[in-house]
Sequence to fold (195 residues):
Amino acid sequence: MNLSPLMTTLVLHFGEMGSRWGINRTVGQIYAYLVFSQDARNADQIGEDLGFSRSNVSMGLKELKSWNLLRPHHQPGDRKEYFSVPEDVWEIARILVRERRQRELDPTLSVLRDAQLSHRQDGGERYAQRRVDEMLGFLELIVTWTEDMQNLSADDLRRLMKLGAGVNKVLEFSRRGRRADSGPSALEPRTEQDS
Fold:
């Protein structure tokens, strides 16, 4: 690799993480290279800096395009296509959530909806039908939540995520309050004797 030590570390790490994210190592490394590069790069630059063959770069770019994660550019006087990624990490997250939903949740939702409608009359499968209903309800809730999150601004998403710690404190306070029917005040820390 023809990269700085920091870039090498990041590119190698993203390559290793690629398999855990459902992409191959080369695609992960190309994406990391583009995420952490200040300027748009063309396929030749990517191949040279990462030590990849032209065909590996082409396949990796094609995969990243299919995920809508690349921004193609053309430069005056240059026929080559250059690539960058969205500047805003929140936009990258939105794209990944949308794409994963379309690839993973939507097909499962379709199968569950079909199963729910087409197998209702078979009384011998009540348990499976109940589980289909439960799973469908759960996945539909996730889809609704992700759609709502997709419509928030980056600032609102940031604020919402920071609420997480506060929400956990409120929930713990609420749980203690429900357990303390006539015991110590829910505002006081619980002791072993209270349990």
Q: What stands out?
A: The radius of gyration is 24 Å.
